[in-house]
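REVIEWER CHECKLIST
Item 1: Sequence provided? yes
Item 2: Single chain? yes
Item 3: Sequence as submitted:
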Amino acid sequence: MLHKLKSWCNLENSGDIIKKSIKIGDHSTSVTLERGFWQVLEKIAQEKKSSIRSLITDIDNKNAGACNLSSAIRIFILQQYI
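Item 4: Structure as written out by the authors:
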């Protein structure tokens, strides 16, 4: 699975920080992740035939405030490939 992850993530510039606004339920929030995590999150959403917004909403609901949303997304991505 890790070879698949590597092929999805363009390592050049993958550490660039990207901040995006996301609407979760009835409120907006911002999520800051490295470009590589955004790339992989997009691929996971495509595989699940889902939107990034829907995927992040599910992650947020399962996280229930245990950690910040950006960390929860990174953990979710790692769990998909470990």
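Item 5: Key structural point noted by reviewer: The longest strand covers residues 17-24.
Item 6: Recommendation: ____
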